[in-house]
Design a protein that fits this description.
heterodimer, A: 594 residues, mainly alpha, 22 helices, 0% strand, elongated, B: 177 residues, alpha+beta, Rieske Iron-sulfur Protein, 3-stranded antiparallel sheet, 2 helices, transmembrane (chain A)
Amino acid sequence: MRKLLADWFEDRTGLSGPLRSMREEPLPAGPRWRYVCGSALLAILLIQAFTGLMMMTAYSASSSTAWGSVFYIEKQMWMGWFIRGMHHFGAQAVMVLLFIHLLQVLFAAAYRAPREVNWWLGLVLLVLIVGFGHTGYQLPWDQKGYWATKVVTNIMGGAPVLGPYVKTVVVGGSEYGNQTVTRFYGLHVGILPVLLAIVLGGHLALRYRHGLKPPADAADVPPDAPRATYFPDQTFRNSLVVTAIVGVLIGLVLWEGGAPLDAPADPASPDYPARPEWFFRFLFQMLKSFPGRLEWVGSIAIPGALMTTMALLPLLDKVMPSKLLHFLACTLAFALAGGALFLTIASFREDAGNPSFQEARTKADAANERALYLAAHPDFGIPPQGAGFLLRFDPLTRGGDLLEKKCLGCHRVDGKGTGDQSAPDLKDFGSYAWIRGLLEKPDAEAYFGKAPECDGMTEWKKSTKLDAEQLDQVAEFVATFAKIPADQSVDEWLNTPGVADHPGNALFQKDCGKCHLIDGYTEGGVRDAPDLFAWGSPRWMKRMIRKPSEAGLYGYLEAKQRMPAAPPDDMPESDVDMIVRYIKGDYLKPAAKP
Amino acid sequence: MNRRDFHRLGTIVLGGLIKLAVAVPAAAFLLNPLRKPGTAAEADVFEGLVALSQLKVGVPESFGIVRDQVDAWVKYPKEPAGAVWLVRQPEGAEPAVIAYSAECPHLGCAINLADDAKHFICPCHTSAFDLEGKPQNFVPPRPMDRLDVELSKDADPMVRVRFQRFRTLAEEKIPLA
């Protein structure tokens, strides 16, 4: 039955003949380790294609979903980290093998007749594979991918004449977004693979046409040596090497626990320390030597001249002495490899000795860790607006940023600020510790020491007769104000159990109520002072941010001494909410590590 | 075993190992949806839909179920997840309210109330049920799926329903994860 089927198949396709001739290709000089490189490259490319196909079943290409789907692959799906890790490290293995393969062919002078066309096809494959590398690692649309896209497309845009048009077509407009991701995805999983299949098909067909280039010592093989064929003698060596490479890849995946995923793309993060993959580092470093308008020399002219030179090798071979050309080409290859190594090391060393890079990297790592934590948290998750909103909806990240940008020019948080302090420290604002500190020493820098116009508390402190225990009670009482719900009136609050009979209540009414007017509760009037009802609660803080000139707040101060109001145009409600929640510590916190 | 046989065997074994190293994780990757996500806790949540006094005895009324939904990696807050039919029973009957999933046990279309308000029909393949959820033709494989109902302790109790999905086409009611 099996024979019947095999015969039928052979009759209809005639495939077994060519296949058998490939298997039984004679190896006159026997199997060689130096023949494994191309096969290993092919094997890893197949693994790339396969793991890539797997991820296509889970990846979602758009600027709002890409990061989330990669997060899902990496952190939630069964073996997702393994599949993605293999693809990630496989890509790097391809780069290494490609480089070795190229050098090997160059050293063996296999660009010479009759293999010229195959040499050219190989160079095309080199460009295609570099294209795979570039289009692939931005697909997660994380910080790394986003900034890499910008840099690469701007390099395209810097090319003379056609550059800007090419860039617009590739990016899908002038803005980086959904269409950018879909276009790079289309390139990575559609256009480039088709081109690769065609060119690689040609490359392999020609390799079988010309056979493997026999080594120089092939003639020395004794005529009575055992006859070797491609299968199994060479395939065994190939399998051993591929097994070793796959073993290393698996080791790297296990060691790293998958592939890296940076925080979601954030166009508004000027301090993100963007760096390319290690195998592009020398190009990255080289570009630093070509300032401004000369950038295209480094990014286009030099690589272009290099590729042209390599492409011309078979033709130069006809007009120059072969040996001299080969010597020059190999010397050039060594010089370039040395140069690339030098630039790569220089780039890493520069970063290692650059404190501001380290600081930016630390910050980026913290943002990354936070994004992954929030995405995985059942109470948070990735919002429908997209992963870019993950950190924008997080009071710790967004509130902290806004506070730093909008408030810390005057205020401080735990002594840290960006300008000259002229307002209190906001650390624990509204808490018992804050109010107790104020009652102890109102003219401390953390309170009103830097705001001389708010000297009412300082004067009160000189005249008050409250002792330490009574101050504790008042502070405890005032600290409860922060918990007053947003919709509660003064009357409702006073009727809440625990308010009227609080030990600090009477003290507050008598000692603080002389200045601080709370409608229906304290009289005020001795001096101007803010209304303290719901002080330290989100509603009070929001009023303070929106309209500090209200009569119940600091309206009594001269305009130039008041805190500037934040109008809704400048700061939407959601931003105010983020700042308040940041100050109140109202955000998800990872469980303390023991 | 001679050298060539060793090479032959080695090629096959190593090649097989390499293929397994990617095929096994790939199989797990593709089969990921079979792994039940942690919705078991969610399934135990009763959702308040309407005050009992708002329901008329014997008149079916439909209510949407709105809940936080996690669709693979995206968390959608308060999204419509499905619908239920509530039928209030006469005074003194136990339970006071019957809740049916509006998902047809045949192929999952939304069951609607017929124009005469005396029976349910499914607009897709004409499944028909009476107000007790019993099939009135041979299209549906089983009666309409009843859902757990409880009444809150308020003076005018809230009707609370535990929304669940069940396998379609099965003759038994088999909850989905």
